[in-house]
Amino acid sequence: MSTNAKPLVHKYSEHGITTLTLDQPERRNSLSMAMLKALSDELDQIAEDPATRVVVLAAHGNVFCAGHDLKEIREQLDSDQFQLELFQQCSKVMQQIVNLPRPVIARVAGIATAAGCQLVASCDLAVAADTARFATPGVNIGLFCSTPMVALSRNVSRKHAMEMLLTGEMIGAIKAERIGLVNRVVDEQVLDETVYSLANTIAGKSSHTLKIGKEAFYKQLEMPLSEAYDYTSQVMADNLKADDAGEGICAFLDKRKPDWKDS
How far is C-alpha 111 from the geometric centre of its chain's CA atoms? Predict the structure, then answer.
């Protein structure tokens, strides 16, 4: 790609909120190898950027993300190495989102299918326009959505996940909210207002506390009950030693706004 080419992922930061926008609507914002690497690079930079408190993941066009680029896959159909590297790169990006020490909110307008649905499910929160639709339709083309299944099955119930995976059928935003794939469904006219109101609310918290909480949330999910309680008890005890915990408790008792140090 030439240096003058349009970036595949556009980044904009303001007031502690960094928006990453998939910007290849002519290819339905597909997760090509180039798109995945561009998104991965941006996530790496954000992970080291203390000025970013919340990330919003958005997309240009009427398709949020159509999943993998099937034209690219067809061109590389005889390359086992490329296929494996593609799915490994995609899996890396999804884990980067989960492991990012900043909350990530998906802003979904339009369609999110296959790995695009996986992308939504991998984000910590998701707000969808009432026109948004979701599917894991790989079964329809003989390619089961096995990697999207990982994120999907960790966000919705097993039977709802299996129904999406086995039928490949599109579901609307209201059903996506009902089964837990998205948090909120709003009129498209107020989508940005809703997303950035939520982002600003979260950005007003201690980023150190959010980092601790996000990491603990995903770790305890994979633990047996007693182990999860042992782990989170230690997390809370350690959290109390942080400057922001002391400041937050004092501010609450003194009935004033906390002055976060993010430490």
Answer: 15
Taking phi over 0 as left and psi of -120 to 50 as alpha, with beta for the rest, 134 belongs to beta
**Tokens encoding 36:** 């995945």
Beta strands 104-108 and 17-22, pairing class = unpaired
Backbone angles phi, psi at 120, to 5 degrees: -65, -45
pLDDT tens-digit series, residues 20-54: 999 999 999 999 999 999 999 999 999 999 999 99
Tokens 């997760």 sit on residue: 31
Please name the helix (run of DSSP H) or strand (run of DSSP E) that holds residue 151, with its range, or none. Answer: helix 146-153
Integer Cα distance of 122 and 114 in angstroms: 12
Tell me how far apart the alpha carbons of residues 29 and 186 are, in angstroms, rounded to a whole number: 22
| C-beta contacts of 171-178 below 8 A and 24+ residues apart | 171/133, 171/134, 171/135, 172/132, 172/133, 173/108, 173/128, 173/129, 173/130, 173/131, 173/132, 173/133, 173/134, 174/130, 176/128, 176/132, 176/134, 177/128
pLDDT single digits (tens) 135-181: 999 999 999 999 999 999 999 999 999 999 999 999 999 999 999 99
Domains along the sequence of the chain with CATH = 9-203 (3.90.226.10), 207-254 (1.10.12.10)
Span 113-126, pLDDT tens digits: 999 999 999 999 99
Between CA 223 and CA 228 the distance in angstroms is: 5
Distance of CA 243 to the CA centre of its chain: 29
